[in-house]
Amino acid sequence: MKNSSILFLAMIGFMACQESQQNQSRVETLPFYDEATFTPHWITSNDAVLDTFHRISPFRLINQEGETVTEKDFEGKIFVVDFFFTICPGICPKMTANMMILQEEFIEDDEILLLSHSVIPEKDSVPVLKSYAEDKGILSHKWHLVTGTQREIYKLGRQDYFVEEDLGLSKGEDEFLHTENFVLIDKDRHIRGIYNGLKKTSINQLIADIKTLKKEK
Predict the structure, then answer these.
(1) DSSP 90
(2) Structure pTM?
(3) May I ask the CATH architecture of the domain 2-214?
(4) Side-chain half-sphere of 33: how many Cα atoms within 13 Å?
(5) What SS3 class is residue 215?
(6) Is 156 exposed, middle or buried (CB count within 10 Å of its CB: 0-12, 13-18, 19+)?
(7) How far is the first Cα of the chain from the last one, in angstroms, to the nearest whole number?
(8) H-type alpha helices, 54-124
(9) Are 154 and 171 in contact (CB under 8 A)?
(10) Which tens digit of pLDDT belongs to each residue from 129-158?
């Protein structure tokens, strides 16, 4: 009995340790990224090189409430970005479900926002996005579903967020943009991580990395 009790306590301790590790980031600080290969740059957050380092360009889009959304709405915020469309039968439902995990995890945290861009903006009008948001339980103050011109959205996806991670593969301006990647952006619009939006382990790592980024001065 004594040996069984010791074994049981050891198993509990191991499980607690594993859970703690899952809730921790892999590193104490996150790297910065500036191109599609996502080669990490280990730069301190107060380094002058960041003044000219790649950051997300200014943008002007419309969300599910019919409100204009610009980069100014994300000043002083950490945000997670993806690209989707409302009638997508493949990867998008899983991506939305995993974004919902982020919404619930940071529901009380005003520093964290979510931003989903429609890749068929000509069809995903404001009423369509609004209906989709209501159906999925998406909260407008936390999670923006945005539409706009295809040119601006595709430019943001490919040239700003490097969201397709194509490692130099050239695509035409009108070629369909489709990706499962989530991108983590810091308060200064710098890219700090890319994650597979279909995998629960990747979402857990994203949550941990957001918490690491919140500690950054």
Answers:
(1) S
(2) 0.86
(3) 3-Layer(aba) Sandwich (3.40)
(4) 21
(5) coil
(6) buried
(7) 51
(8) 92-105
(9) no
(10) 999 999 999 999 999 999 999 999 999 999
